[in-house]
Amino acid sequence: MNKKKVLILYGTRYGSTEGISERIASILGENEFDVLVVDLKKPPANDEYLSFDNYAGILIGTSIKIGQWTKHVKNFITKKKDALNSFKGKLGFFVSSGYAAVPEHYEKVKVEYTKDALNKLGVEKVDLFDAFGGLMDLSKTSRMSWLDKKILVMVGKQTGLETDSTKEITDLRDWIQIENFAKEFLQLL
Questions:
Q1: pLDDT at position 71, please?
Q2: Is the domain of 52 the same as that of 117?
Q3: Where does the pLDDT of residue 158 fall: very low under 50, low under 70, confident under 90, or very high at 90 and above?
């Protein structure tokens, strides 16, 4: 018997969305799904992964920085919106954002940066969507620029996010929430 296939596409800046994608892929794999994970910044040279009819489900994830998705995810969705709208399987979408870790901002981030943003790009079909916290790396070895760190500290103070520069990384992702999202997607398949 052939395993059902799931395609996970993501865009990441500092690794948070990549980690979420890998965890979701692991859960799907443990449940007998064949999962292909693709970083849209460096997709495979072979376009075979774009044959959406081969998949029971597609999940797309992106990080959020200053209210914006990664350009690779935005460009992909803009180019593939017709194929996504006509996709017969289940489509899920998630974002990784520091704001999603703040309870009073969670619902706004969940709807505005997922379903509403997809609709603005012409994608009308989304079966499941969510928003997860991200990674805050203020260390000297961080991939974040000096200015990004300053902005993050300022926003952190305004929203109550932990911005401790003595910590290597502050992980704001709720792994139980992420696992529940993966399991909910499984139920749709």
A1: 97
A2: yes
A3: low
